[in-house]
Amino acid sequence: MRTLFTNRSVRPYLLLVVITLVLWALDRGQGRFFTTGTAYSVLQQFATVGPIALGLGLSMIIREFDLSVGGMLSLSGCVAVLSGADYPALGVALAVLCGLAWGLFQGGVMVWLRLGSIGVTLGGLLTLGGLAYVVTGNLSISYPRMDVAMAVNHPVLGVLSLRSLVALAAFLAAAFFMARTRVGRDVYATGSDRRAAMVAGVRTSVIVPAIFACSGMLAALAGALLSYSLAAASGVALTDALVPATASAIIGGVSLTGGKGTPIGIVGGVLVLGLLNAGLNAIGTPPAVQDVVTGGVLFIVAVADAVDLDPRLFAMRRTWVELFYRPREPSPAE
Amino acid sequence: MTDQGLAVAWREAWRLPLPTSRRGRVLVGIRVAALLVLLGIVATTPGFFTAVSLFSLLNTTSFIGCVAVGMTFITLSGNIMSFALSVTLSTSGMVFISALPLGLPAALVAAFAFGAALTGFQGAVIGYFRANPIIVSMAALALITGGATLITQGQGIYPQGDAAAALKGRVFGVPMPLAAFILTVVVAQAVLSFTRFGRQLYMVGSNWRAALAAGLDPARVVLGAYVAAGLCAALAGIMMAARYSSGDLELGLGYDYSAISAVLVGGTAISGGEGSAIRTLIGAFIIAVCQVLLLLHGFSPQIQYLAIGLIVLFVIMLQTLADSD
User: Fold this and answer.
1) What is the DSSP letter of B231?
2) ipTM of the predicted structure?
3) What are the helix (H) ranges across A28-63?
4) CA atoms of A40 and B41, how far apart (whole Å)
5) DSSP string, B3-67
6) How many helices (H) and strands (E) does chain A have?
7) Residues 6 or more apart from B187 whose CB is under 8 A from it?
8) Whether B230 contacts B118, CB under 8 Å
9) pLDDT digit of tens for each residue in chain A (334 aa)?
10) How many CB atoms lie within 10 A of CB A131?
């Protein structure tokens, strides 16, 4: 039982139960919260944020951080909308190809020049954002195929949609690879100790570009499908995805110190955030409250995962004890 | 200040004489060549030195520059960047506008204190608990955005009376924002070069454990860096709020990315411990000059975004030359 509660990937699901109970209590039996509408909206959010959080989470598992996902999300949306009018699948394929190429480029540069990921992907974020403006000519472009827009969001079994099914498939594939294959083990080894992994024969110079390629492709997939479902794309609209994606991955048990976290945990993290947003929305709180709650949860997890938290708490406890339970000092006379 | 201390500070600020390693010299060569090319293009561009283009250049650079100097402290301390300086800027501007009825000095104090408190809290968490700076700043971004929207109901704040008029004027013929920016750079560089805090900041940024072993309190230094960043962001917020006579969350939108771009283009190392406020000033001006050049040569704004992204990417790839040995 104890191992269940300390397992990082179980943590988001426990949180999910708590949030469900709290929202149900806040709803006070008015039936606004337990609806298929809420479930559908949680899963639609899962479809958008999920793949990005997965890519970001994978990059965090190898102890890197892919800031460029926001830029890739907008660029891929623009690419898909511009090229997918006749053949929607072609648009998605081209977008994913962009993600693959850019991810390989970023990862390759990091390995080749031995650079940190934050700097490279920051440059990537700015470059991709610029590219998105260039391909759209700084305009918001609309997607002429309303049938495709309807199709990707059409409810399947009441709560799912094509978009959320694609995201779910991506997570299942990632979970299988990470848990059951040698590649997965190598990825964890790369993240927990890069040098030791290298010495043990893991080809880290292949793993790093591969993970960034995955991250790029996942962000591109999410961006393409999101733009189809909105029937529009622009350079500006989609850059706000970084914070929810990071929050989801972190809540899902991924650690920036590398080597920790699972795709299944990230699913939990995305669902926690999605449930908070959709649930609060359903019971009628203003959207700004969701920002506060997201920020609060992210902050708590950041502090809980902090490197020096334990020593500082220990020092505080000791100060406290010394203040109030000071042992009697022996008098000089003795 | 001893002569030796001055000499060290001078070398730190300008990185003279030339680095001893070959790769370091190559890096300096590339930087100088890039600057010469840029100057060549400037000299051959008709209309660059007209008053209108220079004025627009200086104005846009001043606001971003103040935030960038603040970001320099965070980058130098080894904490990469903050995503929350732009919202600190906007909310400090809002505090300034709403405190104006109490008089200009009170409003200034309130805005500076507010900005310093916002980032100081993050700095305390990052310094004392060693929480991840990226995550903490993202949490702060969401919390501040949400909190400010709840308090203001999403409305802008507009000043009553004309107490802020003094901030719209000129100082010795220099527009107020530019004067504030130059003053910020001078003060920041003085703090970095000539104070104990500044020297400690470089040490903490280049090696936390070594700083700890040397008997410093790295957590307090990080806290100081964040407070300094908050003060810079608040100054930019005050200037913008005074200039546009309003305070809302849109004021500093996207400034985090512009600021870190200026810091990196100036040559401050993203890994921390190396750089200066003067470099950030140069970086901010290089970006502004590039923007004006692209505009004068008839390129659209979207090409400007792309060009800045590519410049940042290129500069970061260059840094490896200096870091590797």
Assistant:
1) H
2) 0.87
3) 36-61
4) 56
5) HHHHHHHHHHHH--S--SSHHHHHHHHHHHHHHHHHHHHHHHSTTTTSHHHHHHHHHHHHHHHHH
6) 15, 2
7) none
8) yes
9) 556 666 788 888 988 898 889 888 888 777 777 788 888 889 998 999 999 999 999 999 999 999 899 899 999 999 999 998 889 899 999 999 999 999 999 999 999 888 888 889 988 998 998 899 888 887 888 888 888 888 888 888 878 888 999 999 999 999 999 999 999 999 999 999 999 999 999 999 999 999 999 999 999 999 999 999 988 888 775 457 888 899 899 889 898 888 889 999 999 999 999 998 888 888 888 888 888 988 998 898 888 888 888 888 888 888 888 888 766 666 665 5
10) 24
- Which one of B88, B313, B324 makes the best mutation probe of the A interface by having the most chain A beta carbons within 10 Å? B313
Buried b (16+ CB within 10 A) or exposed e, B205-238: bbbbeebeeeebebbbbbbbbbbbbbbbbbbbbb
Q: In DSSP terms, which residues pair with A160 in a beta bridge?
A: A156
- Quick check: pTM over 0.90? no
Say if residues A258 and A58 touch (Cβ distance below 8 Å).
Answer: no
Cβ distance A284 to A32 under 8 Å? yes
CB A290 within 8 A of CB A277: yes
CB contact under 8 A, B150 and A114: no
Is the bond preceding residue B17 a cis peptide, omega within 30 degrees?
yes
CA dihedral over A25, A29, A31, A36, signed as positive or negative: positive
A295 vs B125, B139, B305: nearest CB: B139
Hey, what are A60's tokens?
């965090």
Q: B121: nearest CA in chain A? A: A299
Residues of B in contact with A291 (CB under 8 A): 142-143, 145-146, 149
Contact A240, A232 (CB under 8 A): no
- Grouping H, G, I as helix, E, B as strand and the rest as coil, residue A160 is strand
Rounded Cα distance between A141 and A236, Å, is: 12
Give residues 282 to 321 of A whose Cβ lies within 8 Å of B. 286-296, 298-299, 301-303, 305-309, 312
Residues in chain B, total: 325
In the structure encoding, which two tokens stand for residue A167, read together? 């995201």
